[in-house]
Amino acid sequence: MDKRADILRFGVDGWHARFEDAFTDENVARIADALGLVWADEHPAATVYVGYDTRHGAGDHARLVAGVLSSFGLDARVSDCACPTPAVSWTCARDERAVGAVVLTASELSCEYGGVIVRGADGGPVSREFLDRVEQAISLSPTSERGAFEEVDLMGAYLDDLGSWVDRGAIEARRPKIVVDAMYGSGTGHLARLLSELGCEVVEIHVEPRDDFGGIHPDPRDPWADSCEQAVVAHGADMGLLLDGDADRASVVDERGELLPARVLVPMLLGNLVMSHGAHGRVVTTLTCSACIAREAERLGCVTTPVSVGFARIYRETLESDVVMGVEEYGGVCVPSHLRERDGLLVCLLAVEMLARSGKSVSVMASELEAIVGTMCYARRDVRLDPAASQAFRNVLPGLNPGELAGRAPVEVSHADGLRLQFEDDSWVLVRPSRTSSVVRVYAEAPTAALRDALLGEACELVRRGL
């Protein structure tokens, strides 16, 4: 977003800003005003759902948005409680009268940030073209009119549907002990209640309302996952489940208190979908996803379709009916037969079902998977450049074609999303400039940490030299 408060710019699917800076009632109203203008012009009297997370003032901002949307003749329906983004998307997707949804959330960002994200009629992301139209409609002075809106339950039917996805009998028979950590976010209470109803013994942490999120970022990665990892060991739990701030991403902790990397968790979930649910089709991954996912997909008879980074690219593939799963590099998972968006609660339920049906521990299942698909070491580094150097690197990037890196010759070079070098043993490195800042992101994966670090180091140096 432009730092001037009078100019608001959308990111990939919405707008984020710091509370102390531009995230004000006026700017939220300006965005709602523009959304109402565009939606009402294209779909008069359509329904729009509004949800919100647990951040400071999120509920008040949601009701502000609903009132503004309603003033344009739209049927605005706001959640009666803080709720996960997937619940809003799921409800919108199943209402033929709905044109879209708005969620007041900053997802995994720290408590200093607020956000407004926008979803389309099918619960998925809206197009860049739509966001551009909304940006152009943002007025310096939003309407002061407010219409009536309805507060509705967005959780009941959604949770019932989630519960129907898993084998209740297997879960009730095993009665696993689960630590749930919604990280003070919008999944608080909802996932724990559903798991309890399914027969799990649940220990929920980080449940009290905290404007400061207890000093953590609601991002289900280390070091923010430390409390969940410790709680699993302290309570002798079978598994820990983490949700990010708006519950569209999830992570799993094994019984030893170790966080499963996406390269392990995602193939395990895919195996459960294929073997237990009879799913079959393409697996869509970003170019930054682990090779372990493609290996397991092939073993299961699924075709992998790699796409450029960004969930919008995965979403476009899900418009075809043959996609069984969409995956981002950090574990955001979409199961299109449920929702064309990421849903952390569904990931958690599938993980619990997998545990219950296997009769094994999470660590044993992970070890068995790694014995089949192998072990890879994955990492990312960011190279920060000044704006001029960043633009200079962008200019030379399309012509970069190194004959070797870390003493190894690539078997494939691609410029589909920056510069990606593929090597014979499934090692790879990707150099990708950020679309929103003067940062170049460098990803690498290899069978050993030493080789991974060598690839990362030389790729970062390539960026700094700009050669």
From TrEMBL:
Alpha-D-phosphohexomutase C-terminal domain ranges (all copies): 423-453
Cofactor(s) needed for function: Mg(2+)
Coiled-coil residues: none
The keyword Isomerase is annotated on this UniProt entry: yes
Alpha-D-phosphohexomutase alpha/beta/alpha domain span: 9-138, 157-257, 279-368
Highest taxon above the source species: Bacteria
Entry keyword set: Isomerase, Magnesium, Metal-binding, Phosphoprotein
InterPro entries, sorted: A-D-PHexomutase_a/b/a-I (IPR005844), A-D-PHexomutase_a/b/a-I/II/III (IPR016055), A-D-PHexomutase_a/b/a-II (IPR005845), A-D-PHexomutase_a/b/a-III (IPR005846), A-D-PHexomutase_C (IPR005843), A-D-PHexomutase_C_sf (IPR036900), Alpha-D-phosphohexomutase_SF (IPR005841)
One Pfam match: PGM_PMM_I
Family affiliation: Belongs to the phosphohexose mutase family.
Entry-linked PANTHER family: PHOSPHOMANNOMUTASE, PHOSPHOMANNOMUTASE_PHOSPHOGLUCOMUTASE
Protein's UniProt name: Phosphoglucomutase
